[in-house]
Amino acid sequence: MRYWWVNQNQTFRHEFAGKYLWSPKRKADGTRNPFYESMREVSPGDLVFCFVETRIRAFGLATSYAYECPKPVEFGSVGRNWEQVGWRVDVSFQTLPNPLRPSDRMDVLRALLPEKYAPLQASGHGVQSIYLTELPKPLALALADLIGGEIKALARVELAAERELTTPGAETLLWEEHLRKKIEDDRALPETDREALVIARRGQGLFRERVQQVERCCRVTRVSRAEHLRASHCKPWRDSSNEERLDGENGLLLTPSIDHLFDRGFISFEATGRLLVSPVAHKPSLSRMGVPADADFNVGAFTTRQAGFLEYHRDQVFLCRRTG
How many angstroms from the chain centroid is the CA of residue 270? Predict the structure, then answer.
């Protein structure tokens, strides 16, 4: 279990009711924000402290990993300059009957604040520039002890991840369905092009044919039988232009389990072919799926154009905090 602090002054009502956390991927100027990048490191079962207007008013258990999702419509004018596509983590929240105001207990908390990315000032006031940041375990346990009740027990239960687990999809599916309908309604495109673009979403048709001209087998398992392989987009279909959706170099042939890991960001690849494994991935499961999670494994170099699409995957899909 890891422990997280989220500042929700603007979004608490919507996120609590919808059972999620949502952040843009980057700042308005396009630069990275470490507190948005933190979303990519949350795992199911992690404990979240919800700080709202000077008090910890609720807590939650993460029930999903981060996944790409449009900005919630219920946010309305909140975050007017935020990106329209960001990170979402599903969370099962509970309100606290006795919210804790940390500034009242800095005698206990002050010495436990981390030197970097502390969510509180020494005075006990919240740091408003922080959205989501990880809490050191001693600080998280001290907060839980001060709050008491269920959260005190949960903070010490390493099996919390087994309580509830959701599979993200509804919002992403609605988003992709909206994009599909836009393509089907676009009369500027020939009917054959519209059909090819729609079925490319499922890794079929012209897109698959073009991927097969570049790739011969699953890069990880080396399975080469076509009936056991899926054509998987490196830059997701939903994020791609029409040209990119049908580009064979924007695809890999992967067995279903490897396709799942790649699509959800649990694995990725460097241009050199080096396999990357997300720090949130469950390594025993990966090993059973044929992924050498603890080895320095190379699947073979990619073409220059493939490398560009894989860079997008590492930057926008892979579940690993990015720097720079």
Answer: 19
